[in-house]
Amino acid sequence: MNQARRDVFQAISDPTRREIIHLLARRTLNLNNVADHFTISRPAVAKHIRILTECGLVTVQTRGRETFCQADLKGLKQVSEWANTYQEFWNDKLDALERFLDEDPSDENR
Fold first, then answer.
1. Which of 2, 6, 14, 74 is deepest in the core (most CB within 10 A)?
2. Which helix or strand (DSSP H or E) is residue 71 part of?
3. How far apart are CA 44 and CA 41, in angstroms?
4. pLDDT tens for residues 7-21?
5. The whole model's pTM is what?
6. Residue 18 CB-density burial (10 A; 0-12 exposed, 13-18 middle, 19+ buried)
């Protein structure tokens, strides 16, 4: 049975995966170079890379005996769009509050 593809929100929920994305956004690294940035084991880093790959945020390419990882940040667009929905909601609420507070109370008594 095929496992359902993980979503991008699951990927960014973990601070180690967020840091891996940050590293790979700057340049392509082999798996050992990625692991060198963390105190966790290489197999643990490989598991995080696998999750990021399943989410579509990292691509992995094997060249000879080395595995290279590269960020594919297009998947973060989904997160940005989701967050923007709430940003627009709160901007509208805060704008309405500002209008309410700016109303001149003396205008209501006329």
1. 6
2. strand 66-71
3. 5
4. 899 899 999 999 999
5. 0.75
6. middle
